[in-house]
Amino acid sequence: MDKARLVETACEGTAGHGGERPLAPEEVGRVFDAVFGTVERPGAIARALRAGETVSMGSFGSFRSEDGTPAFRPGTALTEYLRDRVR
User: Fold this and answer.
1) Which superkingdom, per the lineage (predicted)?
2) How far apart are CA 87 and CA 59, in angstroms?
3) Which of 12, 17, 23, 72 has the most CB atoms around it within 10 Å of its CB?
């Protein structure tokens, strides 16, 4: 899945059950760029890793730096979902 499809899918997921409009692709794209970064500008995760912090994203998992190399540790909920134990 490329970034455009990821943004599109995330937009669909932002529609509220009470009839609220989904976020526009431009809005979601800006948030993704702020969190994950671009070639020109590092995102919040990269800046935190460089500062020696671990970035925990709840049950999704966490990012950390191991000797200058980014590492991701999946959370329990993500692992269980991928193993088809949770729907």
Assistant:
1) Bacteria
2) 14
3) 23
